[in-house]
Amino acid sequence: MSVLGNLVLIVTDDFVGQRIDKAIALLATQQQTGISRARIQVLMEAGHLSRDKKTITNASAKVRAGETYHLQLPAPEKAEPEAQAMDLDIVYEDDDVIVIDKPVGLVVHPAPGNRDMTLVNALLAHCGATLSGIGGVARPGIVHRLDKDTSGLMVVAKNDTAHHALAAQFADRSLSRTYQALVWGDVVLPSGSIDAPIGRSTKDRKKMAVTAKGKAALTHYKVIENYGGVTLVECKLATGRTHQIRVHMAHLKHPLVGDKTYGSGRAKTRYEFLQKFPRQALHAVGLQFIHPRTNKVRKFTSQLPIDMKQLLSELESFG
Questions:
Q1: Which CATH fold would you assign to the domain 3-74?
Q2: Domain 173-319 is classified in which CATH homologous superfamily?
Q3: Out of 101, 147, 149, 259, which one is annotated catalytic?
Q4: pTM (2 d.p.)
Q5: 147 annotated active-site
Q6: 77-171 maps to which CATH number?
Q7: What average pLDDT does this structure show over 268-287?
Q8: If you average pLDDT over residues 227-241, what whole number do you get?
Q9: Which residue in 43, 175, 290, 297 is deepest, having the highest Cβ count within 10 Å?
Q10: DSSP string computed for 51-73
C-alpha cells in the first residue's frame, strides 16, 4: 500500500466525550485536510487509525483529553476500473440486462486488494461505454453482489433505466433470489424463517452479526435433504444484507460448510472430507425479476457447481 501521509491529531478539551470518528473528522478539518466523517469511518475500518501504536476501529468509542491519534492517509488510487477481457458465463443478455452465472473466486467489483480481474473489469470489456454508471464509477451496472467464494446467478444493468428499475425491485422485494447451501447439523424443521437484524459485529468490525442495532433482515429456508449431521437447505432472501444467509444460518446454529468466517466446521464429525471444503458451500440457484423494458417476469435457474455436486455425491455414497 502506498501512503500519502500521516496526520497527528491531539484531542483538546473541546472534543472530550465525542465519538472518535466525529472528533477525528473535526480535528482533521482544523488542519484543513477536508476529510469527511464517512471517509474517517472507512479509514478506521481499514485499520488506518492508531493510538499508542494500537489500531483503533471502534468509531463509536469516546475520546479523552490529551490522546494522540495517528491517521494514515493512503495514496489515492485510480477511481475508474480498466476494461479487462475475461470469459463470462452469460445466461441471458439483451440491450438492458445481463444475467451472469458467477464462478467461485471471482470478485464482483474492484476494492482494496482486488483492483483487477473482477466482474466489473470483465463487464466493461464486454459492454464498453454502454454499461450503466449509476451504481458508482467503481461499480458500473452492479445492483447486487455475491461474495467472492459464493457462486451463481447475478443480474447486471446495462443502462440507467434498467438500473433504476432493478434497484426498485430490490427495494420492494419483487426481485427474488434463491440459494442452496450445505450447513452443519440436522435442521429439524422442514421450513422456517429467520427474522433477525444484521449489522457490523461489535467484536470484529470486519464481520457481520445479528444485533439489535442492525438493519431488518429476513431469510426463508426449507430443507432439501438431511444427511445426518449435515443438511442441504434452500434459502430465499426477503432482504439483501451483507453475508445474510451465512450470518442467519450461523445464528440458527447451522453455519455453512466451509465458512471460515462464521463457523467452518465441527470438531467431531464423521464427514471429515467436508472440513476440507475450501469455501462456503453456497450457490445462487434461482433469480427472478420483472424485465425493466417488457415488464414481463423473467426467471433463471442454475445448477450447483461441480465442487458442491461432488460434496453431495460423497454424502450420498457415505451413508
A1: 3.10.290
A2: Pseudouridine synthase (3.30.2350.10)
A3: 147
A4: 0.76
A5: yes
A6: 3.30.2350.10
A7: 91
A8: 95
A9: 175
A10: ETTEE---TTSBP-TT-EEEEEE
